[in-house]
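This part of the workshop introduces the protein records we will be handling. To make this concrete, we reproduce a full record directly below.
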Amino acid sequence: MRTTLLLAKIFALFALIAGCGGGGSTSGTGPSGPPHTTVSGVVSKGPIQGEVKLYTPGANGDTATKIFLTSASTDSTGYYTADLGSYKGIVIVEATGSYTDEATGATLAIGTSAPLRAVAVIANAGNTVQASVTPLTELATRKALAAGSGSVLTETAIASANALLSNLFPFDILATRPVAPTVIAMSGATQQQRDYTIALAALSKLSAASSLSTVLNSFAADLTLNGRLSAATVANFETAAGAFLADGTHNRTGVTTISAGIAAVGYYTGTLYLATTGTASAPVTSIQMTLKLPAGVTLKTGNNGEALVSLYGVAGQAAAPGINYIAPDTLILAIISSPGFAVGEFAAVTYVAEPGVIPVASSFTVPYSRVTGFDGTSDFELPLSVVPLLH
């Protein structure tokens, strides 16, 4: 009897300990358990059914000696998820499999000799990272590798390449998940997802006259040459997008007109910085200036139609500037500050360059500027110049 009672108490104690653990974690991470890094996304050229393999580069970022981490299969929508345990650092995702080509309806394959790739950086063990794998992430991978002599990946190059492609296309190429090119899938998607899906279909339309490899090589050559897509490449892409949307036989998306996002593919959004130069005997208390933009460049505007200009650097605490944007090429800017600010960079201006237009700092001019200081008794003009800068 005493033995039975003792066993009952032990079982009750075990039950109490188990209950204190709560409901558990689907990721396998608990208060005392190891972190679980998860990488997931959609593999698409339309949706690819197949396999993804995840790697880390070898020593010094060398992809020629990449190290296998794990693999996963995609479902019917192209979705995959992979658990990398406590891994952090650079991850290379390679995808292979078959898909239905949006432009022709043919069943095609991405083979092991030329997988589609995506590269990302996992900052901390336990992070959840979104990494779709598409022809656009393949272009970003090539761009990142080109910065490292063709075989070496660095975190800086990866971030720069992914940001560049996400600038030239109207969505985050890694975090956005394209959907199946069907009415049902598109109706439940965000605008970014719809744009991604149509962009991939446009690439399929371009590839129908040659091959996906040829199209990607052409895009990659543009990106390697000048970090942009040429006007000719963008024009061909827009023509292909329009042709796909007009194709009543193969276009099953329910979309028939080009969106504002697809129409903006290839346009590059950048930041121009304005700075005062020279020597001042007093703090800057006001700036009045005119900025002229080069051909093919306009200013990005907010919902109110006002140019996106923010005070920056030495003028970061000054009052909001007076802004008058006379489209397409003139910005009139006025800043008043008390007690004033030092000489240096004082404003950041967001601009948009057309495909094939790559402005340099000297492309922007300041035909008029007046910089005023206050010496404690009176305002007077300072012998300072305002110059445009591109970092």
Remarks:
- The first strand starts at residue 38 and ends at 42.
- The CA atoms of residues 142 and 150 lie 8 Å apart.
- The chain has two domains: 38-263, 268-389.
